[in-house]
Amino acid sequence: MRREGTRRRVPHARELGWDDSLYEDGPDGTGSGSAGTDGTDGTTGSDGTGSGADGSGPQGASGTGSAGSAEGAESGGGEGAGKGGKRTGKGKGTVTESAGGSGPGGTRDTRGQGGPPRRGKRRILRWASSVLALLILGTAGAGYLYYRHLDGKLKKEELTLGDKPMADHKANAAGQTPINILLIGSDARDSKENQKLGGAKANFNGPTLADVQMLLHVSADRSNISVVSMPRDTILDIPKCTDPETGEVFPAKSGTLTNESLERGGPGCTVATWYELTGIPIDHFMMIDFAGVVSMADAIGGVPVCVTDNVHSRNGKGEGSGLKLKAGKSTIQGEQALQWLRTRYGFEDGSDLARTHAQHMYMNSMVRELRKGAKLTDPAKLMSLAEAATDALTVDKGLGGVTKLYDLAEELKKAPTERITMTTMPNVYGTGANDRGRVYPKPGDADQLFTMVRDDVPLDGKASKRKPPAASEDPVAAPADTGVLVRNGTGSATRAPTSQRATAVAGLLTAKGYTKAVSDATPDATERTEVLFPSADLEGDAQAVAKSLGIPVASVKKSADVTGVTLIVGADWRTGDTYPKSAAKDSDKTPESARALNGANDKECMEVQDGFTW
Fold first, then answer.
1. Strand 324-325 to 420-424 pairing
2. What is the phi/psi pair of residue 517, to 5°?
3. d(C-alpha 558, C-alpha 87), whole Å
4. How far apart are CA 500 and CA 503, in angstroms?
5. Whose CA is closest to 466, among 168, 170, 166, 167?
6. Inter-axis angle of helices 119-153 and 379-392, to 10 degrees?
7. Phi, psi (5° rounding) for residue 94?
8. Cβ distance 123 to 21 under 8 Å?
9. Exposure pattern of 93-109 as b/e (b: 16+ CB <10 Å)?
């Protein structure tokens, strides 16, 4: 009977939560007590007691009346007393105040007396919370596993394999420093996919060359980005490099193609070669091969390009990339994008310089497409891009992590598209018997461009936030007490140095009171004159030496390659007793020979070479 109270009862299902036991004695609790009579506002019902252990089973309970108590709660012990249809409670259990009334005989609400059962609703909330927690943890776990998956796909190598330590960046007035990243495209034909895309069977499994080399410079204040490409046919000096895996030492090599640097131990030797030529500290590198370009281009999606006429990059000898486009604008991706980036036969004069300009057009267009937003907000496209990038890239160990790549991408996003400038290293064609198609850094212009990047000067000609170099606070020694070493750097790959130039300039310094100035016969070719110092205590002395000869303060630099104040007379001062004013005046102007292309320029079209139209 419902109110009998003389035997143990089975609770009715309507009194239970969805996941409660249908038995009075749950697996973790016991209950006992006399049946109380339903009452209103606590006016009827006999005192009763109940006890129960922690758990989900039903608890013993009492009807409420003038006095009633219960011990035991669903999660922890608790105490409660019913008075006038209301209750208060204390202890570890959850206690709430509820309207009057008595609990049914032999049962009680696990939150205390004084209200209808609420266990079902509470258990539903707990169940939902548990499911939500599992989903969150599961998602976080999956995210972590995916992060590890991406991280593990990145290939990592040493940043530099050269012996010369790179100088530190010079911070701007706000304490910020620039970021320099060398982008390398290899022509590796070491896999079936690369062999299919690269062609040229004679080169299968041969030495890997660095056919694309671009230095990406992010300004210290993140207001602008400058890119300098070096044509693959550039002749220069490659420094000594050591393979970190085999220990093989590659001795320094003069007058050789820049793309050969990659086969001398890896991308770290290409980094060392750039630093040897430019003096620009390089923070990171990224390298990609043919297959990587295709997968990245597919992940990025279509990129608009433009040609002046119908073009087919294939000549009678079968040479060319195979690119075939109609005149005007086209959207390319995947293998066709690789063809565009490799095309030389069919663009302009068919040279590597034309190919470099086409690469700049593609990169600018790609940036504009990515910044339109759709590709960077679509999760599927982002995941595809992340998969392609981590699978395709080889990076330096300092950049060897997905989070670091993400942080770098965030820095790159800060510079607006209209402040991105693509340039090519100013160059001249060689005139020697073996120089056909080969180029050399153009005296004056090439070093001017390198100096601007090194000094964080924007290549787009817009005013920089940087302040001109301040005079050193280091006390300046008297000229007679200052030692100066003078070197002759007036030579270049195409011109012999001016004879006895270091001796002549040392004589100029002696006449100005620098009686300790001496000349050094060691050739040290450099495009622009500079004064170097090894430590902060000599900066003031170095600036004083520069000022005495009319050399700009911006040409005074700290260097780990010298042990004292050192003046290197460059190719910009081959003759004369005073540093040329024209050399100082144009030091912050991008040379026209660099063929600058602005990132926002979407009107540029590649000119098609005669004989490659259809």
1. unpaired
2. -70, 130
3. 80
4. 5
5. 170
6. 30
7. -80, 130
8. no
9. bebeebebbbbbbbbbb
How many Å apart are CA 134 and CA 155, to the nearest integer? 34
Indicate the SS3 state at residue 427: strand
607 within 8 A of 347, measured Cβ to Cβ: yes
Predicted pLDDT of residue 36: 41
Distance between CA atoms of residues 35 and 207, nearest Å: 93
Q: How far apart are the first and last CA of the chain?
A: 100
pTM of the model: 0.65
Q: Of 95-99, 439-443, 545-549, which gets the smallest average pLDDT?
A: 95-99
Tokens standing for residue 221? 């204040």
Distance CA 257, CA 271 (A): 14
Q: Where are the beta strands (DSSP E) in 339-397?
A: 394-396
pLDDT class of 420 with cuts at 50, 70, 90: very high
Residues 278-330 pLDDT 10s: 989 999 999 987 777 777 788 888 899 999 999 999 988 888 889 999 999 99
Q: Are 102 and 39 in contact (CB under 8 A)?
A: yes
Distance CA 47, CA 34 (A): 8
Own/partner contacts of 317-323, CB < 8 Å, gap of 24 or more, are: 319/345, 320/345, 320/346, 320/612, 321/345, 321/346
Of 104, 116, 114, 62, nearest to 84 by C-alpha is 114
Nearest to 493 by CA among 256, 270, 259: 256
249's CB contacts (< 8 A; 6+ apart) are 240, 241, 242, 243
